[in-house]
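Hi U.,

Before I forget, here's the chain from the pilot set. I'm dumping it here mostly so it's searchable later in email.
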Amino acid sequence: MKKIIFTAALVLSAVFFAACGDEDSEKPAVYYDVVFVTEGGTSVEKQSVASGQYVKKPEDPENISGEEKYFGGWYTNENFSDESRFDFSVPVTKALVLYARWLSVPEGSWFVKFITKCGTGVDEQIVKDGECAAEPQEQLLKNGYAFGWWYLNDEKQEYDFNSSPVTQNTELTAKWNESGIYEAAYEDESPFCMNVYETLEADSESGAW
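Structure:
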C-alpha cells in the first residue's frame, strides 16, 4: 500500500513540474514598437517587432516637402551621425524611433541612389557633374539570391562605374541571380524588406530578377 502511495506521489510530482515547464515555455514574446519619423516625407507604418527579431525594411518614403531633397536612409537620432545609421540586419532588443534623413544636393552635383530590391542597403552618393560614381563596397545580401551587378533603366543597361560620367540624378538597380541558399536565421522572415517572401515567390514563378 505504501509503495502504491509513493508511486502515485511521484507521478503527481512529475505532472506538476511538467505543467510548470509548459507554463514557462508558453510565456508571451516581448514586443517592441519601431516608429518611423519621416519629417517631410510620406508616412511609414509603425512596426511591432518581437525581441530578437528584425525590423522589416519599408519602402523608401517620398519627399513631399516641396524642396529638392532625396531620401538618405534611416537613423536612430536626428544628428544623423555615421554610427547612428540603422542596420536592418541587427535584431531588435528595445523600442526604436527611426528618423528619415533627407539630403540636399549642392549646385553642380547629382544624386546617385542604389535600389537593392529587398537586399541589404547601400549608401547614396552625391557626385560632381561629369565625374563617375564610386562602385559600392558594401557586401550585398538577399535571402535566396546572389548579387549580380548594377543596372540602369530597370536592369536593361549594365552600369560601368569607370566610364559613366554622372550628368543627372541617377538610380542604379541591383540585379539578383537565384541561388536557392537561405540563411537559417531568416527562415521565417527577412530583416531586409517588407513582404520579401511574397516577392521571392512571385519572382520564382515568373523567372524574374
